[in-house]
């Protein structure tokens, strides 16, 4: 595994449990839900809150839509207190980690976190916060399919470990020795990567305590025009997360069969106008084809009527780009397979947390988690019913897991996904569509 690298070991003597880090953990403690929340209305038997009314007139429609969005979001908004200081400390100019307090809260239970795998290292924002909050961690593995992202994340981890080692002798919070590794690998290979580090992990004898998958792209990937991910910057029609992969967006646009092209626009882009766009793309092939993201954007701008304006073409372009990116990187199939592999890699009591950014991903996570805990096919209809085996956890234990679903192999801790708080949304627009789901192995 040429790209795998063991970071220098972090030797420290066993010491008393965390003290210096208590502050970080304390600020992530969730507060109770407000009395108007749907969850608490259910618990007290009161009726659900009525939908908010928005003003009619100029801009009224937009206000109404926002009010409805907010009303729906209230059902899933994180109950964790927002820790602006933690965000400031762990954010990077290249990428701001999403749902950071909630990820930390997820891995505070059920026991000490001895081993942790970050499948999507990126700029290492989540990883560093986890290392800081878990001085007891003995094994850390960070993976990213994009070697340039991995380089950045690895440099941040090395700097963090170096500074921790420098002050290690004085810090009572630090215990034991941390073995830290980074691997330039797709997370679909999680079993092989774990096996290369420790054979007992490969054969599932021991398993790891925590796994995080933070899907999608980092800001550093979107902002680099040469990757072809951004609708707003001209660049090559590439969109590969892994530069060694052979398929590019250009290949799909210029040579995939028309029906396949239509299928990805419909299924991966959820684009209602997919047939028209499919036909326009095929017409363009006859006049020279596509050579840059700008070529594709120009076509979409021409297709979108004047009345749709800038927002109209941007939304359509975002859906078309999403369809291409998912197809280029085979994202949905890899996600589903990797959820199974990751669950296999967990120790008993271990947790897998997944942050998704669009409904296609979230649907897969939701359905696969149910399959994993029940050990078979999940019934989509059934799991939307309220009479599932739910355990109300709205107590001192873990209030943000307001409902869970118990199966014979595990527990889904988030029957409803957790979405960012309003404070986080104000700070980082990119987090608006994020959803966190967590499963625990039993
Ligand atoms: C949203 S970013 C992660 C940001 C990170 N959590 C942080 O705090 O900085 C997603 C990362 O996952 C990587 N990625 C996407 N798909 C992947 C896959 N199948 N296997 C491994 N890494 C993947 C991307 O290259 C990107 O760097």
TrEMBL record:
InterPro entries: RsmH, SAM-dep_MeTrfase_MraW_recog, SAM-dependent_MTases_sf. One of its GO terms (biological process) is rRNA base methylation. It comes from the Eukaryota. Keywords: Methyltransferase, S-adenosyl-L-methionine, Transferase. Residues 378-399 have a biased composition (Acidic residues). One of its GO terms (molecular function) is rRNA (cytosine-N4-)-methyltransferase activity. Residues 33-64, 376-401 are annotated as: Disordered. Belongs to the methyltransferase superfamily. RsmH family. PANTHER family: 12S RRNA N4-METHYLCYTIDINE METHYLTRANSFERASE, S-ADENOSYL-METHYLTRANSFERASE MRAW. This is Uncharacterized protein. It comes from Paspalum notatum var. saurae.
């Amino acid at each position: 595994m040429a790209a795998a690298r063991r970071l220098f070991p972090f030797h420290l003597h066993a010491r008393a449990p965390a003290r210096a880090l208590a502050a970080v953990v304390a600020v992530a403690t969730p507060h109770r839900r407000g009395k108007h929340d749907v969850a608490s209305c259910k618990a007290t038997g009161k009726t659900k809150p009525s939908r908010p009314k928005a003003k009619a007139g100029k801009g009224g429609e937009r206000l109404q839509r926002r009010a409805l969005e907010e009303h729906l979001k209230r059902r899933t908004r994180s109950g964790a207190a927002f820790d602006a200081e933690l965000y400031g400390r762990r954010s990077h100019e290249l990428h701001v980690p999403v749902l950071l307090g909630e990820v930390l809260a997820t891995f505070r239970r059920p026991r000490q976190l001895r081993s942790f795998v970050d499948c999507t290292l990126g700029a290492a924002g989540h990883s560093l916060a986890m290392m800081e909050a878990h001085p007891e961690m003995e094994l850390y593995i960070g993976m990213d399919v994009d070697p340039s992202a991995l380089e950045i994340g690895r440099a941040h981890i090395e700097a963090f470990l170096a500074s921790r080692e420098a002050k290690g002798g004085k810090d009572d919070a630090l215990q034991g020795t941390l073995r830290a590794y980074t691997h330039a690998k797709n997370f679909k290979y999680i079993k092989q990567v774990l096996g290369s580090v420790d054979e007992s992990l490969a054969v599932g004898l021991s398993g790891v305590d925590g796994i995080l998958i933070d899907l999608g792209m980092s800001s550093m990937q979107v902002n680099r025009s040469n990757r072809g991910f951004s609708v707003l910057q001209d660049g090559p029609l590439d969109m590969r997360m892994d530069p060694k992969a052979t398929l590019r967006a250009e290949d799909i646009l210029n040579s995939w069969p028309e029906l396949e092209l239509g299928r990805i626009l419909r299924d991966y882009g959820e684009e209602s106008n997919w047939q028209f766009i499919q036909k326009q793309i095929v017409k363009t092939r006859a006049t020279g084809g596509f050579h840059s993201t700008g070529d594709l954007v120009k076509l979409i701008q021409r297709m979108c009527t004047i009345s749709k304006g800038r927002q109209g073409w941007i939304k359509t372009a975002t859906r078309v780009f999403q369809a291409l990116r998912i197809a280029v990187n085979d994202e949905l199939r890899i996600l589903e397979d990797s959820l199974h592999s990751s669950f296999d890699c967990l120790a008993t009591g271990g947790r897998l947390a997944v942050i998704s950014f669009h409904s296609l991903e979230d649907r897969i996570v939701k359905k696969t988690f149910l399959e994993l805990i029940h050990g078979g096919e999940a019934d989509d209809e059934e799991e939307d019913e309220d009479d599932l085996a739910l355990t109300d956890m709205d107590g001192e234990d873990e209030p943000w897991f307001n409902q869970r679903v118990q199966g014979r192999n595990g527990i889904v801790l988030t029957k409803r996904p957790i979405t960012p708080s309003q404070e986080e949304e104000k700070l980082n627009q990119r987090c608006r569509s994020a959803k966190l789901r967590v499963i625990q192995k039993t």
